[in-house]
Amino acid sequence: QVQLVESGGGLVQAGGSLRLSCAASGRTFTTYSMGWFRQAPGKEREFVAEISWSSGSTSYADSVKGRFTISRDSAKNTVYLQMTNLKPEDTAVYYCNRNQGDYWGKGTLVTVSS
User: Fold this and answer.
1) Span between the terminal Cα atoms of the chain, in Å
2) Is residue 70 within 8 Å of 36, Cβ to Cβ?
3) Is 62 helix (H, G, I), strand (E, B) or coil?
4) What is the rounded CA–CA span in Å between residue 23 and residue 60?
5) Which sign does the torsion angle of CA 22, 71, 62, 67 carry?
6) How many CA atoms lie within 13 A of 113 on its CB side?
């Protein structure tokens, strides 16, 4: 079993920044990737970013490229999402997952006011 706990969400004005964290515990030695998804009210969950646990290579959704940065701290089993130049359309519950979805966190709410 793996547990994922997100933190760092909150209310921020447009143009502001937030950093989300996702701490993994349990059988983390089987991790090969970690990712962030988000779900806005009335919309489907969508991919935001992903990072390879071994190589650190990353991928991003076009909507966040250049504004969001995913990173990891292997020693802490934690993945981060640095979000800058936030827009109202970034408002959503942000979820982290492992290995493209074998485990999910419960999410953290990000609200961007205009």
Assistant:
1) 40
2) yes
3) coil
4) 20
5) positive
6) 4
